[in-house]
Design a protein that fits this description.
CATH superfamily of the largest domain: RNA polymerase II/Efflux pump adaptor protein, barrel-sandwich hybrid domain
Number of helices: 3
Number of domains: 2
CATH topology of the largest domain: OB fold (Dihydrolipoamide Acetyltransferase, E2P)
Order of helices and strands: HEEHEHEEEEEEEE
Largest sheet: 4 strands, antiparallel
Strand content: 25-35%
Strand order of the largest sheet: 4-11-9-6
Number of strands: 11
Length: about 170
């Protein structure tokens, strides 16, 4: 519990809005309702390295969430519509940390564009990690409806790359 409190304090001090961690049977999700852009998760590396690989989780562990005054109800209605649309989408996430590239080489056309139909196993992009080019394949068939990252942008493990509308 002491480490959890330290983690929450660290997240607040660095204005990190959302954090997920999974180690063995321990799962921690912290989400703050606050304004401002969240800080990079790279600043959490020292804390994560020091965290134990497994730790007992109390059965009565309350949900960890700080709150600020809620937004007006009219603003919440469009968000719920967007969430219901997003719930039907399949999200392809980055399996590694690296740099996102939309095409096989500079000046070449992108592997996929918004509106393209893709098959399971089709290459969507490349992520460069330690000078190695890793082809990222679709794990589902469907239509590409959203790309979450820009060409040349660094990506984290588990970060959403594409949203697919499954067939």
């Amino acid at each position: 519990m002491k480490q959890l409190k330290e983690l929450i304090e660290f997240l607040r001090e660095n204005k990190i809005g959302e954090f997920d961690m999974e180690r063995g049977d321990l799962k921690v999700r912290v989400k703050f309702a606050q304004e401002g852009a969240p800080a990079s998760l790279a600043s959490l590396a020292p804390f994560l390295a020091a965290a134990p690989a497994t730790a007992p989780v109390p059965a009565s562990l309350p949900a960890v969430q700080a709150s600020t005054p809620a937004a007006p109800a009219p603003a919440a209605a469009p968000a719920s519509v967007a969430q219901s649309e997003d719930a039907s989408l399949h999200v392809v996430k980055s399996p590694i940390v690296g740099t996102f590239y939309e095409s096989p080489s500079p000046g070449a056309s992108a592997f996929v564009k918004i509106g393209d139909q893709v098959e399971q196993g089709q290459v969507l992009c490349i992520i460069e990690a330690m000078k190695l080019m890793n082809e990222i394949e679709s794990d589902a068939a469907g239509e590409v409806v959203k790309r979450f990252v820009e060409n040349g942008q660094p990506v984290e493990y588990g970060q959403p790359l594409f949203a697919l509308k499954p067939r």
